[in-house]
Every structure is written in C-alpha cells, then in structure tokens.
Sequence to fold (279 residues):
Amino acid sequence: MPEFRLTQISDTHLGRRFPGLIANFEAIGDHIDAGRPDLVVNTGDVSFDGPTSRDDVEFAKGMHDALPVSCRYLPGNHDIGDNPTAIGPAPKPPVNEAHRGQFCEIIGEDHWSFEACGWRFIGLNSLVMNSGLPFEAQQFDWLASEISRTNGGPVALFLHKPLFLNQPDDPETPETSIRYVPQPARARLIEMFGKVDLRLVASGHVHQRRDFTWRHTRHVWAPSAGFVINDKRQDRIAVKEVGLVEYRFQPDSLEVRHVRAAGQRDVDIEELLAQMGEQ
Fold:
C-alpha cells in the first residue's frame, strides 16, 4: 500500500551563537539522513530571534538546506513576532508584515497546501491571527478555497501554536492566551475545519510532547528540537524533552511515532539565558 512519510521538527531556535541547539539539530539531521522521509516540516520558531536578527534566520535556513530531504516551514513567534490577544499583556514583539516578509524571503512560504497519498496537507501561519494585518484576511480566504478542494478525503493541519489545551472552548487566561491560537480566530478555524475530515492537528510552540484525541481529530504537540523549559519557568502539561515526530500516512490511516534522535541532549533554557548574558 502506498504511504507518505513525513517528519515534523519544531522550535529549533537556531542561531550561530548557541552550540547546544546546533548540536541537537545536527543529531536530528543524522536521524533524518538515516531514515530519508519524503518531507520534513518545521512548525515554527525556526530561528532563535528573527525579529531582531536577520542572521539568525539566514543561519537557520542554511542549517535546514543541509538536510538530505525537502523541507516546508511555518513561522513561529520567534520568527515573525507574536499574536495580539484579547487578554494579557501585549506581545513583544507583535507580529508585523516586515518580519513576515523577511521569513518568506529567506525561509520560504509561510502557508501552503498539497496532496499526498490521498491526504490534503495544510500549513497555516498562526501568528497573524487576530493581528489585523491584511495577510490575515488573505490567508483565511485562501484557506476557505483550499478546504473546498478536499473532496471528502482526510486532512492534516500543521501550524505553530496548538489550537487549544483540551477542548475548543477552554477559557483564555493571561498566562495561556499566547500559548494557543487565540480567540476569536480559534473558533473561526474550528468552524472552517468542521466542514472536512480533519484527522490531525500537528503543532509545536509549547516545548512539550503531547498526543491526544478530541472527538475524531488527533492533536500532536511536537517537542522542541532544541531545548526544554524547566518547571520553574513553565507549568508542566506533558513530557518535557527534546525530539521530533514521525508520521506515516496511508490513504485512510495515520501512524505517529514519537522519537528522540540519538545524541540529542535536553538543553535547559537556563543554559541559553546564561550564554545570552555573556554576550
């Protein structure tokens, strides 16, 4: 039976001044080289700090270009800035068109759609949602067109931020408003994808590995490929470890494999902060 093998990596946070993150990415590269999937998708925070360092974005793209298979990308808040939210403090920095343009110029498309093995794969830029930027409306219009083309087949959605913690109507708090796709964009997305056979939502952002099913949709949170955030700085929801996720898609089925590449190390955020303080 035909199959399509996809490897998801996320939150690589690459910058040439962080050897621990580079080493973890190189370990993932060796793992990908050994397995040779059909496609690699990075679900965001490709670079360490794109809004303030174009060099981080260029360096991250160069590292991905060395991988032996094709890649697709989605932006994270460390690439283009963060969503405005209804509650909580204003994001720093907020997403803007200049940073999105830089991502597209250096990294590539920030939203995409393609078919493989009977599935429709859709990648969205989740950071522009609730931004009021012209591209937000353009992407929703584009998404409506793509959804109309699914023809009843299974759909896999990739984006940086998870849709929600446990269910769509989870309340937003100042602490969680930046963790998930914010309302009201979340409700709009869920309504749009309610018209299709959405089997998978694959995200990153939280730096925790999680895998659960809500109704008939499997939600997979990829861990960071680069570093973990200790419990003093972030509440523990699931598994805190570095790694990646491997998928095998067949015309009407999906297999998920949670992986830690040989040689990956759980770099703690404190190590990175210390390195930043030394500069």
The first strand starts at residue 4 and ends at 9. Residues 41 and 72 are 5 Å apart (CA to CA). The mean pLDDT is 95. Helices lie at 19-35, 54-65, 77-80, 97-106, 134-147, 185-193, 269-278.
